[in-house]
Every structure is written in structure tokens, then in C-alpha cells.
Amino acid sequence: xxxxxxxxxxxxxxxxxxxxxxxxxxxxxxxxxxxxxxxxxxxxxxxxxxxxxxxxxxxxxxxxxxxxxxxxxxxxxxxxxxxxxxxxxxxxxxxxxxxxxxxxxxxxxxxxxxxxxxxxxxxxxxxxxxxxxxxxxxxxxxxxxxxxxxxxxxxxxxxxxxxxxxxxxxxxxxxxxxxxxxxxxxxxxxxxxxxxxxxxxxxxxxxxxxxxxxxxxxxxxxxxxxxxxxxxxxxxxxxxxxxxxxxxxxxxxxxxxxxxxxxxxxxxxxxxxxxxxxxxxxxxxxxxxxxxxxxxxxxxxxxxxxxxxxxxxxxxxxxxxxxxxxxxxxxxxxxxxxxxxxxxxxxxxxxxxxxxxxxxxxxxxxxxxxxxxxxxxxxxxxxxxxxxxxxxxxxxxxxxxxxxxxxxxxxxxxxxxxxxxxxxxxxxxxxxxxxxxxxxxxxxxxxxxxxxxxxxxxxxxxxxxxxxxxxxxxxxxxxxxxxxxxxxxxxxxxxxxxxxxxxxxxxxxxxxxxxxxxxxxxxxxxxxxxxxxxxxxxxxxxxxxxxxxxxxxxxxxxxxxxxxxxxxxxxxxxxxxxxxxxxxxxxxxxxxxxxxxxxxxxxxxxxxxxxxxxxxxxxxxxxxxxxxxxxxxxxxxxxxxxxxxxx
Amino acid sequence: xxxxxxxxxxxxxxxxxxxxxxxxxxxxxxxxxxxxxxxxxxxxxxxxxxxxxxxxxxxxxxxxxxxxxxxxxxxxxxxxxxxxxxxxxxxxxxxxxxxxxxxxxxxxxxxxxxxxxxxxxxxxxxxxxxxxxxxxxxxxxxxxxxxxxxxxxxxxxxxxxxxxxxxxxxxxxxxxxxxxxxxxxxxxxxxxxxxxxxxxxxxxxxxxxxxxxxxxxxxxxxxxxxxxxxxxxxxxxxxxxxxxxxxxxxxxx
Lengths: 647, 253
Known about the structure:
- The structure holds two protein chains of two kinds.
- Chain A is an alpha+beta fold.
- Chain A contains 20 helices and twelve strands.
- By secondary structure, chain B is of the alpha/beta class.
- The radius of gyration of chain B is 18 Å and the shape is globular.
- The termini of chain B are far apart.
- Chain B has helices spanning 46-53, 76-86, 102-112, 117-131, 146-158, 176-192, 204-207, 232-246; strands spanning 2-13, 20-31, 35-39, 61-66, 69-70, 87-91, 164-168, 196-200, 212-217, 220-226.
- In chain B, 37% of the residues lie in helices and 26% in strands.
- In chain B, the strands form two sheets. Chain B has a six-stranded mixed beta sheet, with helices on both faces. Chain B has a four-stranded antiparallel beta sheet with strand order 2-1-4-5, with helices on one face.
- Chain A binds chain B through residues 193-196, 264, 268-273, 276, 280-281, 283-284, 560-561, 564-572, 574, 647, and chain B through 54, 56, 76-77, 80-85, 87, 89, 95-101, 103-104, 106-112, 117, 120-121, 124, 137-143, 156.
């Protein structure tokens, strides 16, 4: 048998075993290639106009390489350990270490560069699709064209060749360091011996759970007003991060075995086949993989969290734009408004106009403001708020002496919330009007120009408004006291109206178009979401693969157990049921913890990003969980094969 | 009463062009309550014989009946069903699940048949008492000695009161003290519970604990020895003599 034959034989065997590795490699290469192609694509110039598109894509591709190279190196350590017996055997029959290294190198070379080639071809063919997705989420109306970029090809080849050299270097070190005997032993030495649960582990287990829960608890209090200075907030965040991550580690190290042990104790030795295969095996496995699982869980939590947040922003764009611009178009300059209206009329676009007189007044909100933030850079007794009459808003009616607030920014609400009702004062130039605050509404009445970036608008009765108007404090008034909102009656004409608006080239501070703003945000958020999405997907695929490889190893180690159980008279389907349950835990526990982590992370600060929490977050989580469980199902199929061969 | 009846069993390995016959038309009957040893040199086919008798491996030809059930024609699922209610196993490598405690290992066969917990508890206490492993019931296999492991394995084989217990070199990995301990327990259980035991061994001492020794050579039965009323010592000498005649390799000039 020649060396060539040996290599081919190995290759054939490996491809069958490592098809998922090959898949992950092809996937990451093609994604990287597509990203780099995108970076060099002339079409990206259009994106570049508004945002630094290429730069963002470039940094994403760097991150992508980081994820992929860590994955490949890690996967390689798993594989080389699995093949240590074979390497030992080669040495035993008198091959030199260099020769073995050469065999491995050639073998890997074919597998790796074969996948690289396929990946590049695939990447090239899907790059158009990816650009189309990007344009779609950014709402750019451009036609994606297929460009083959030699720069992208060169860059991809270089980057992956470097990773290949790194892998080979690792293999070289591995082979150099091992003695023949050690190579034969390596598989058995990696797993810890099964021993009874010590008190120490029970303590670790309990501490792990307490740490995670306390992290969650603090995160739910983070912006609730318990932390009053920026320093305290910062410390709280560090604490949450530290305690949750460390808690996760301890959870895997001790809590799992601790909880499972309690369940087992209850059974008093009488375990069903399902419990034998799931509980007892996982109890000991999770402990030895604690670090890996912690990393996977933390990074998945990060990925899900970022995905949720970017999707929340994207999802809330319309709502945010509504609060930025009240109406389809808004003006504070009467001349501009009239010019635009005339032009609309000339274009046969029917519209509805609202004019609102806005007075700025200092308000003493001390009695109704529910905050203890000390480092506010304004005085709650003298807060400048826009005031309008209830006649300006059709949907709201307020009695004299009363007032409602509206248009209050979501994030600000968390820092400074109002009580349900109470008394507050509006301070004019000489007199003070006392009003009863009735509550907060969510109508969008004024554009951002009047609300100082998100402060509430006070709506009072016409009589109170007139009183205030007579006693106006000129020092604090805006340049313009008139808000002109223009709504296009027919939605279909909005695009056209926006074109008319753009032709004027108004000053951006006095004239705003909601469509323009939401499109701008969509470009930024779309690009962010696109990048985060693909990075998240890469991470998902690579971490899923790593868990799958781990399960492959476990299944082979547990094969003797399966043959015992089958000899005892358990059928294949009995075993498979137990294994399915085991996989439910093996994949489910990291997933559920990752989801819980990201849920609490998103929950504590989502209001900075948008107005809608649940729908976007749940969509992201369900998608992530569904894709992730594919790997669990694949591993069950692998187990099925092992069980079948066990007897 | 005959409990196991094997007639004309053949077992071949390999393909058409490279066939290796391991069992060549072997006949065997075992009565209820017997303690039978199967002896033979390496490669004589004794483990293969045990595997086909215990339904783990399939015969190429012939029939095997256990308590009147023809097992050679059973489907995978039926076989599993049959194994869990009728057969018990003891192996050289103990074959314990090292993630389970001693008690959990022993109770495994009962969970297959869904025995009520109370009965299971009772049976466990009984068999663990008899085999002297009650004190280590909450330990993991890694924490106990080889002898204790093998007795755990034996307890697992006995607990569901199977029709036949198959033991493959049960003393192979044990020191002589643990080995005679285990064999004493086995023959006690054989008498007390009227359990049928079929044991493969190459150790004449181990074989001398049984009622009957079957010698296998080249896939066929070479001879049989019955213990009858003689003492274990004289039976041991008989076995040694036969083994001497049987030899390993033919010495030809």
C-alpha cells in the first residue's frame, strides 16, 4: 500500500465523517468571498454615499475571519485528537514524524483547498443574491450586477491560506510533542473520571445559579432608577457582565450535575433508559466541557442580543420617524411651507395641512417627576417644555386647569418617568399657571425641533393656552413658534411628494420629510442588520458544528455502553429515544441559557434602540433557535448510525 | 427439562471467496438448572458459540431453541424483547455503564420490563445481599474493585431471573481470590435459584465449579465431562487431563 493510497483512503473516510466540517468551511469561505466581493463592488458606492458602507463591510469581514479561524483551529484540535491513535500506529510501524506530518498536510490540503475552491465558486454565485438582500433591507432601488473581482479572489485565497498554515503549524506541534504511548492514550485522558458528587461541587452549583439570577435581577433594575450616577450604572453593568458569565461557567461546572443529581436521588436507582442515556451522561460531560460551553453560550447570547437590538431598531424605524416628524412633512418656516404647498398643488397632490402654535414655557415638574437621577443636567423645577392648545389636536380634549403630555421619548421615559397624575406649574413671564397632570399619551403631534430631542409636549385647554400666550417669556422661545404639518392624503402620491420636497433643497432644520428620514435610517440600520445578521449566522453555523463534533466524539466513546444496553434487551428505538432526550439537553441547555441571557440584556436597554420590543425580539429568537436545532437533529442522526453499529 | 437446544449450527465469516468456518455443525442441549462450562483453545470458536447462543450474533445455518422459542428466525425487535426477559449476561470486561452507580447498573434490566419500583427494590436488596455488594450500592464503577465490578455485573444478570445466564470469561480480569469468590457465588446462585448458567472460560479452575464441561475444538464438540458426584478437586484433575489431550497446536514431525 503506497502512501498515495493511504492518503486517498483517509480522505474518503474523512469526508464521510466530516461532511459538516466541509460544509462549514465552504459556507464560511463563500460568505467571506461574498463579503469581500461586496467590498470591492462598484455598486457599493451608492451605499457609500450615505454611510461608510465599504468600511462597515470590511470590518465585518475581519470579524468574520476571526470567527472562522477560531472555529477552524478548534475543529482541527478535535480532529487531530480523534486521529491520534492512527498517528501512533503510523509511528509504531516506523514512519518518521515528518513523514506523518507530510501525509496529514497533503490530506488536509486536498480537503481544505477543495472546499475553498467550492466555497469561492459558491460565494461568487451567491454574491449577487447577497447584494440583493442588502439593497432590499436598505431599501435602495438599484440593480445588483455580478462582478468578479480579482482583488476579492486574491484576498480570500491569502486569508484562508494563512489559516491553513496556522492549522498545519498546530498539527506539527501536536505530532512533535507526542510520544507513541501518549498518542494511544489521548482519547481516554481527555474525559474526567466519573466520581461521586462532592460537597464542593454542590456549592459551586448553587453559587452558579445564584450568580446568574442576581445578574438578571440587577439587569432588570438597571435603568429603573436604583442607580443614580453614571459611575454606579457603569459598575452595575460590569457586575452584571461578570456575574452572568462567571455564573454560566459555574452553572456548567456544577449546577447541571447538581440539579441532575437531585433528580437521580429521587429515582433511588431506578432509572429508565431515557434517564440513563440523558441525565447520567450529561451530568459528567457538561462539567468537562464547561469552558467551551460558556464561550458558546456567551457569544450566542451576544449574537442574539445584537441581532434583536438591530432588528428592534430596524423594526421601529417607522415609529421613530413618526416621532421625529409629525406628519408626512413638517415645516417651521412659513415661507418654505407655502412654497412646498404650492408645488404640491401644481403637481395635483392633495394634502391636509395642520398649523400649530407652539409656546415654550418653563415647567416645574417636581411633584410629578418620578426620578432620582442625580446627575441630570437640568433642573426639574424649571424645565423648558413646548406647550400647545388642545384645539390643535383632534383626538385630545382637555378641560381648563388640566393637561396631558405626549410625544415623550421612549428612552427618556425610563430615566424620568412621570407619576400617574399630580400637580405641576407652567411658569410664564410674570405669572404661574397651576395645572393638573392627567397622564401620558403616545400621539405624535410635533416634530423634533420643538421638543428638544424628545421632551414631552404639554397639551392644555385653549383658555389656559391663551393665558400663557399673553404672558409669554420671549427669552426662551424658539426662532419659530409655528409648526406646519403636511399630510399627503393619498399614500400612493407620497413618493412623488417626496420628490417635490427634495427638489427644493430646503434647510434641513426647518423642513423635514418623514419618508426621507425613515429611508435614511433604513440605510444605516439595514446595513447594520445585514452585517450583524450574517456574522450571527456564521457564528451560529460554526458553534453548531463544534457542538456537533463534540457529540460525534461522545457517541463514539459511549458506543460500548450502547452495545451493553442492546445486549440487555433495549431496542434501537429505545436507545434513540434516550439519545434524542440527551441531545435536547446537550443543545437545548446552551441555547436556552443563551436566549435567557440575551433576553435580559435586551430587556434592560432596548428602549434606546426603538419602540417595539416583543415582536422583533421573538422573531430573532425563534429563527436562531430553529436554525440551531438543525445541528441537534443532525447529531441525533449520527447517533442513530452509531447505535445501529453498536451490536 | 431441556432449556436450550442447538442443532447443526454453522457460523461463517467473510465473503464467498474468503470464507472462514468458525462453527461447523455443532449440536448442544442444556437442561434447566445446569451450570455448563465451555472450554477450548483460542480460536476454537467458544466465544462465537456463546454469541450465537445468546442471540447477539446470528448463525449462518441451523436452529437454536430457548424454552421452545426458535431464536434464529426472530426479528431484531423480537430478539431485543426476548433478551430482556429471558437472558442475562456477564462479560470479562464487566460491561458496566460507568456513569451509573452500582445500584442503577443492577436495576437496569428491571426498567426494561417496567417492573414496579417496590418489587425492584426488594429484588435488588436480595441479590445484592447474596453477592455482597450492598455496601457499595451508591458508588460508581470507577470507585470499586474489579471483583466488586464483576459481582455487580453478575447481580445485573441475575436480578430479573432470566431463563439462562451467559458468562463470557467472567474471571478473566480478576485476581484468583476475587475469581474464586465470584465462582462460589455463581454456583450458590445456580443452586439456590435454579438458574441455568452457560460460561465460556479457558481457566480449568473456573470450569471445575460447573456441573458439566464441554470442550470445543475447531468449531465442533470434542468431548464432554460430567462432574457427577465427584469432588471439585477430582473434577478439576479430569478437566486438566482432557485439556492436556486437547492441546493447542498439533505437533507433527
